[in-house]
Amino acid sequence: MTFNPLRERGIPLDKQLRNWRELNVAPIDADHADPYTRCRIITMNGIEVESILFSHQLARHCPDLELKQQLARVRYIEAQQQKVVNWLLPGLASVLETTIAYEQVAVDLTAWVARMEPDEYLRQAYQFGVLEDFDHLYRYANLYEMIEHRKAEKIVDQLTEVMPGRPTIRHHRDPVDNVREPYDRSSAAPISKLHALTIMSAEQQTMNFYMNVGPTYMEPIARQLYQEIGLIEEEHVTHYESLVDPGESWWEMLLNHEYNECYLYHSFMETESDPKVKNIWELHLNMELEHLRLAAELFKKHDGRDPEQVCAPELPAPVTFEPNKAYLRELIATQIDYTTLGTGYVQDAHERFEKMQEALMGGEQPPSERVIEENRAKSGEDYRLETEGKHPVRDLRR
Amino acid sequence: MADGHTKPETMQETDVIELLLAQHGMIRNLFDEVEQAPADRRQEAFTRLVRLLAVHETAEEEIVHPFARAEIDGGEGVADDRLAEEREAKELLQHMDEAGTEDRDFTKNLLMLRAAVEAHARSEERYEFNKIIQHTTAAQRRAMGAGVKAAEAMAPTHPDPGTESASKNLLVGTPVAMMDRARDAIRQALGKRS
Question: Over pLDDT 90: what percentage of chain A?
């Protein structure tokens, strides 16, 4: 069944405000919830945070009072949506558990997007990034075993494997090499624009999360690991945001943001296992349809084009959280030693890369290496969840 | 394949906070075990959970909360809040122990107990443990840890076959009886008169 969000009617904007009782959602169960329900919550929180911050940036560049007032009205509703979505997370979960869930999102969402992406250059960008998130999951899982004495399979279940990816120590590149070439807004497939926006938003929220929760830890190794991976999230946001064509007008960007929110709420409504959470996705989809309609009006008026010229005529196949184990193993086997040079990829550790490495390490092991050593000393061996057999790379086997 | 069970009695930690944090993880794992146990093994898993809870909560009552009360700014209120949570959980635990795992409300009660115990643990981590670390030296925390170790030795959660020594039977009876035994062991280890 096709669904064209530009032709659907949502809830009128003046009927969208929720009171305290409606905002006070019951959180999911920290011990029994479907891990992919938690992944969808974390993803949608990232999408809502981006929609709020984007709208603020737009407002700051907008001289027209009436327009700013309209942006403020929609943005307030987006802020309520963000509160409802993120407040589905349980207070019982520790920061580290939520962190592991963030990395599960980064792995299985980015892998899905890489699998579905039609453009070769963009696909390579996702394949490159996912191997790093995959390794972050392994590092945090070891920290979790070390300080909370629990195994990360309690969080990711058996859905996502936990083992070394591209080693975190090799993620620290010269910032110049983190900037990619953008897609071309006039020729890129609509799905490619949605993918770029989705992954950029998810990584940006991950960056925000780590930069804020990292110092709440007492354990020195935890504080240091959040610093290290937090800096890699800075690299990832640079990497993914540079994929988006900066030649899009503000109104085109707004349109793409609203369309993407419809796409993701619709996707998650179609694939959600928890009925209470599914109701929220459905409600928010019906709100977003109206936000999209308003953005389309602004686009027509200020950009002078028809939204159907830039948006997909129907929603693409739903973004689905599902295991990507074989796909990830294949990438690990073939791309583990990649790094970037300029806007492309190479397999050699080139001069600029080595220089950055030397300056940053200061002759010491980074926290991402020490966390593994310390957990080996404490637990006897590093923590892994290899459900599909031995690690594909011989050197990274135990 | 490594043994996935958690065995507090084999832990290397001696720092009181590390020990208690590790027990929080183990308690959660034991809840998983009870929930997933087939009917004929549920009682046995539940008994192990009760033992660890008895040891753990008693250690906190004897060591952590008094310290918080005496040394932390606002510690009186914080300790009172924790004790109120513990009282509630203990009443439920006592009731569940009497009713047994065959009770038709067992699953429902287990979920309630789990939610209460885990929220309590998280609150301790956030409002007490952080501050205790701030106010103590490593040596002090090791000294406090001795009491936890002594109590822990009484409650092996997964005794190795063949070595089910006398220690296994040290904690028997009702949860209250277990807590009394644990309290004696802790006070003895810390050189207090019971």
Answer: 95
Instruction: Read off the pLDDT band of B166 (50, 70, 90).
Output: very low
Question: Could you identify the residue written with the tokens 């009876």?
Answer: B173
Q: How far apart are CA A339 and CA A356, in angstroms?
A: 13
Average pLDDT on A349-368 reads 97
**A146-160, A331-345, B40-54, B171-185, range with the lowest pLDDT:** B171-185
DSSP state at residue A32? T
Nearest to B57 by CA among B29, B77, B27: B27
Half-sphere exposure of A55 (CA within 13 A, CB side): 24
B165: contact with A, CB 8 A cutoff: no
3-state secondary structure chain B: CCCCCCCHHHCCCCCHHHHHHHHHHHHHHHHHHHHHCCHHHHHHHHHHHHHHHHHHHHHHHHHHHHHHHHHCCCHHHHHHHHHHHHHHHHHHHHHHHHHCCCCCCHHHHHHHHHHHHHHHHHHHHHHHHHHHHHHCCHHHHHHHHHHHHHHHCCCCCCCCCCCCCHHHHHCCCCHHHHHHHHHHHHHHHCCCCC
pLDDT tens per residue across span A288-322: 999 999 999 999 999 999 999 999 999 999 999 99
Mean pLDDT of B164-187: 77
Query: B182: closest CA among B86, B67, B61, B64?
Result: B61
Is the distance from CB of A150 to CB of A144 less than 8 angstroms?
Answer: yes
Which residues in chain B are closer than 8 Å to A91, comparing Cβ atoms?
A: 119, 122
Nearest-CA distance from A378 to chain B in Å? 8
Q: How far is CA A198 from CA A45, A204, A211, A245, in A?
A: 11, 10, 20, 14
SS3 label, residue A360: helix
Residue among A330, A374, A10 at smallest CA distance from A219? A374
Give residue-wise pLDDT tens across range A321-333. Answer: 999 999 999 999 9
Any CB–CB contact under 8 A between B77 and chain A? no
Inform me whether the pLDDT recorded for B8 exceeds 70. Answer: no
Question: Does B107 reach chain A within 8 Å, measured CB to CB?
Answer: no
Give the Cα-Cα-Cα angle A49, A52, A53 (nearest 5 degrees): 85
How many interchain CB pairs under 8 A, A with B?
Answer: 36
Which residues, at least 6 apart from B71, have a Cβ–Cβ distance to it below 8 Å? B132, B135
Distance to chain A for B194, nearest Cα, Å: 32
**Pairing relation of β-strands A344-346 and A339-341?**
antiparallel
* pLDDT tier for residue A219 given thresholds of 50, 70 and 90: confident
Residue A344 phi/psi, 5-degree rounding, is: -115, -170
**DSSP state for residue A33 in the 8-state scheme:** S
Identify which of B110, B19, B123 has the alpha carbon closest to the alpha carbon of residue A94. B123
Do A31 and B4 make contact, defined as CB atoms within 8 angstroms? no
Residues 6+ apart with CB under 8 A from A303: A249, A251, A252
